[in-house]
Amino acid sequence: MNTVIVRASVRALTPLIALLAVVLLFRGHDAPGGGFIAALAASAAVVLRRVAFGPAPGYSERRGRFALFLGTGLLLAVVYGLVPIVLGDTFLEGAKWSAHLPVLGEVKLASSLIFDAGVFLIVLGGVRAVVDEFEFEGHRDVRADEETRELHEGDATEGAR
Amino acid sequence: MTLAAAVFLLAVLGASAPLLVRVAGRNAAYWLALGTAASGVLVGVHVPAVLDGEVVQWSAAWIPSAGIELALRLDGLALLFAALVIGIGVLVLAYTARYAEHGDARLLTVLMLFAAAMLGIVLADDLVLLFVAWELTSITSFLLIGGDGTEGRRPAMRALLTTALGGGVALLGGVLVIAAITGTYDLGETLASADAIAAAPLGWLAALLLALAAFTKSAQWPFHFWLPGAMVAPTPVSTYLHAATMVKAGIYLAARFTPVFAETQPWTALLVVIGLVTALVGAVRALVATDLKALLAHSTVSTLGFLTALIGLGGEHGIVAAMTFTVAHALYKSTLFMVTGVIDHEAGTRDLDRLGGLHRSMPWTAGVLVLGTLSMAGIPPLLGYVAKEELLVAFRELAGHGILGMVALVTVVVAAALTVAYSLRILAEVLSGEPVGHAAPASFLAPPAIVAVLGLVLGFGASLLDGLVSVATTAALAERHDVHLSLWHGVTAEVALSGLAIVVGVAIVAARRGAVPALRRRAVPLTGDRGFDATYDAVLRSGSWIARPFLTTSPASHIAWVLGAIVVIGVATTAIAPPGARSAGAPSTPADWVVTSLLAAVLIAMIITRDRFVAAVLLGLVGFILAAWYVVLGAPDLALTQLLIETLTVVLVVLVFSRLERRFARTARLRRRTAIASGAVVGVLAGAAAWTFTGRERLSEPGRWYLDNALEETGGHNVVNTILVDFRAIDTLGEITVVAVAGIGAYALLYLAGRPDR
Questions:
Q1: Across the interface, do A74 and B722 touch by the CB < 8 Å criterion?
Q2: pLDDT tens readout for residues B701-748
Q3: Cα–Cα distance between A24 and A37 in angstroms, integer?
Q4: What confidence category does residue B527 fall into, taking pLDDT thresholds of 50, 70 and 90?
């Protein structure tokens, strides 16, 4: 499935999907969207890229990078929940602001966007955890090569010891 | 406030350890030691007040609806243990900086998190907080013993199951029984309701459960087996967790609840009997050990036995002895563990049979070892001697109360003689024979040397501990006590008993060539991890026996269970449902019929097709049509989610299918007919159940509330999203945690699946 046409269209689609995900995340508080939905949309890009291009070059060195998404997301959500406690409120209590800006007019902002961003990162990380190690047809050879190289390197270090 | 800051600081230090290691390498441990000392200052500012008899308290709301608070208190007892946690912590971290070749971020992170949890235990003023901190120490201990999951796997599992599953659950049970009696989780109020707990019909149960928690954590017989196994952990861990602090958590718990349970009957007898048995078993095992670290572990078990017995004994003598002994043991045992690590490093072995001539090859190290060992043996003028005198005073008093008291005193003296024997045996083995190894760098030896010298200073100046031991005793007995410790009380019965123990101990060491091997053969049944392992394996076997029906690769046998469950639920709900449960929904609209007929058409196509890809895509189409239905019903968020999930699922299914035959294999006629029949039955029943219970309901009361209040409360127009991130954000937090854990689990499975050899 890693044909020229698929690759070209994925290349074109990725930024569009990313933009869509960001829009969905930001508008979530007022219109259909939010962290979960935005993350699922972004996941589509992740899966597409994986199908079209296979593991990114040097993937085996960066194996497990998805955990960064999970950790950051959870940290964001928990810290967001703790800040109100420090300020004398209850856990996860949200706050909202609105202001009149010269060009944009009435702008409102809810702190829960931070929490939703945490949700976004975790769901995206969860999808990546599954997709990253998935062996798709056509990439098995790439993976096998990496594997044998690792094995040989392992033997070499073993021997040196 | 500074108390909370002290705990928080330790946790933050743990989180920043990986960064520090990246910047400073193994010297990161020095920075962490400095940070721990800063945390000590935050606690230390209250020392004058606490020594004056005040109780420093801090609290913040945690779960107000259940009366659970983030409450901390610093009284005498807490101060004594907090001083050990922080003081030994600083030295162990400084030691770690030279113990490890490279900075070990994982070790340092978990070590700091443990320190935070341990400080949490001793400062907790809320029983639920105490339980949480207690479990956190078990978990961090598990991670530290387990290491990279090779050698330490089994011992770590034993320790975790014993202390967290056995002891932790017992503690939770005890806390709940106490809360049921007193109606509060507040520690101060609990201690004040001693009479109510003693009078309650279930007071004995609370005492039993808390004793069980203390026994498992502090490695009392018959739960003692996990502690020697925990010695696979690196030396800083053994020093800090498994000698100086974590194993003392049980002692702390027992001392803390002394005012409550001292009058409850099973308490005293249970603690004294189990404690003395443990003291004896540990001492015998220590005497026959050949690995220096194992010897020290068994010796820790033995000392923890003494401490438990002393707390069970209670009264001023019992508690004073327990407190003094706790400090003395923390000092000499951390000296010995750290110096064992030094010897292991410089001589390449910890085997007593192979070590020798250390006073020639590494004189300073040998000197520190001698100081620690003599304190352990209870030889004057070291602090260990002061503690042993107090121990003998407490038990000599008991000996006046009948034959059982006499038996207890004899047991104590025998165990003390064995202690002298195993201590002096170390010196006899490592100082004789051909010298091995070479001198250690000063920075490596400094931490144990500091603790060893402290043991000597506090031996001569035992009165320096008066204030601390007095306030700790006052807190543990809930009445004021002024204690005066000293090295020399004049010629008393205790001195005579002490002398007797030393003489017998020396005699055993002199006869060790014959006595130790003979004893070793008889002492084997005293281990106990075999019993644990047998139980553990039996549980796993029964688990795989229960799981056997599901351990098959045939999808049909998995699906059969699911379908069977649907049949049972369908029959039960449609047949047994009371008339009122039936939904009085409004009639369907024309749009519903469009959607259902589309669905039916797609499903029929899916049943007929023989192509895997077509089937997968059609299944996705079913999901898309459902999403359209959600739009018709006015749930765009749900529809969007459904669309995206369905897309991802179809892509993944197609990718998996790409490895299989394109077409479904032909199956036997009987099998096909069975499948059709069971599918039809399940479909009809599920349809009937759905028909019974669904329909167009009017908006429920909570639904109306959200619609009315969402905008005002949260500023959001999208009510679904406000529920997710505002109203029910805690639910969402739980769910994303599950997603994160599931992601890590799925990754591990896929990662391992690619590596059949691991």
A1: no
A2: 888 888 888 888 888 888 888 888 888 889 999 999 999 999 999 888
A3: 7
A4: low
Measured CA to CA, the distance from residue B28 to residue B105 in angstroms comes to 9
> Do A112 and B742 lie within an 8 Å CB cutoff?
no
Q: How far apart are CA B36 and CA B38, in angstroms?
A: 5
Separation in Å, CA of B655 to nearest CA in chain A: 6
Report how far Cα B169 is from the mean position of its chain's Cα atoms. Answer: 11
pLDDT at B114: 95
The yes-or-no verdict on residue A156 having pLDDT over 70 is: no
Q: Which residues of A touch B715 (CB under 8 A)?
A: 29, 96, 98, 108, 110
Minimum-distance CB partner of B737 among A1, A74, A130? A74
Scanning every residue of chain B, which has its alpha carbon at the shortest distance from the alpha carbon of A39?
Answer: B644
pLDDT tens-place string over residues A18-27: 999 999 998 8
Closest CA to B506 of B622, B417, B415, B601: B417
Interchain proximity A125–B733, CB inside 8 Å = no
pLDDT grade, residue B173 (50/70/90)?
Answer: very high
* Separation CA B294–CA B297 (nearest Å): 5
Burial (CB count within 10 angstroms: exposed 0-12, middle 13-18, buried 19+), residue A4: exposed
Beta carbons of B721 and A122 less than 8 Å apart: no
B752 and chain A in contact, CB less than 8 A: no
| Per-residue pLDDT at B146 exceeds 50 | yes
Interface of B with A in 46-65 (CB under 8 A): 60-61
| Contact (CB<8Å) A31/B717 | yes
The 10s digit of each residue's pLDDT in B545-562 is 888 877 777 777 788 888
φ and ψ of B289, to 5 deg: -70, 150
**What pLDDT is attached to residue B214?**
95
Question: Contact A94/B746, CB-based, under 8 Å?
Answer: no
Query: What's the complex ipTM?
Result: 0.82
Q: What token pair was written down for B420? A: 């002298």
Q: In this predicted structure, what is the pLDDT of residue A158?
A: 42
Q: How far is A35 from chain B (nearest CA, A)?
A: 9
Of B647, B733, B744, the CB nearest to A67: B744
Q: What is the mean pLDDT of chain B?
A: 88
Bigger pLDDT: B642 or B357? Answer: B642
Lowest model confidence (mean pLDDT) among B12-26, B299-313, B509-523 = B509-523
Nearest CA to B301 out of B240, B394, B227, B359 is that of B227
* Partner residue facing A134 (CB), from B732, B733, B750: B750
pLDDT in tens, A12-47: 999 999 999 999 998 888 888 899 999 999 998 988
For B122-145, what is each residue's pLDDT tens digit?
999 999 999 999 999 999 999 999
Q: Looking at the complex, does the CB of residue B743 fall below 8 Å from at least one CB of chain A?
A: yes
Q: How far apart are the first and last CA of chain A?
A: 43
Residue A143: what residue type?
R
Distance from CA of B528 to the nearest CA of A (A): 37
Q: Which residues contact B225 (CB under 8 A, 6 or more apart)?
A: B158, B162, B527, B528, B529, B531, B532
Q: Whole-angstrom Cα distance, residue B165 to residue A49? A: 45
Selected for mutation to probe chain A from B736, B749, B758 (highest A CB count within 10 Å) is B736
Coil vs helix vs strand at B472: helix
Q: Do A91 and B724 touch (CB under 8 A)?
A: no
- Alpha carbon separation from B395 to B1, B82, B276, B327, B384 (Å, rounded): 41, 28, 11, 19, 17
Contact in structure between B362 and B436 (CB atoms under 8 Å): no
Which whole-number Å values give the CA distances from A12 to A7, A52, B143, B401, B652, in the listed order?
Answer: 9, 12, 46, 90, 21
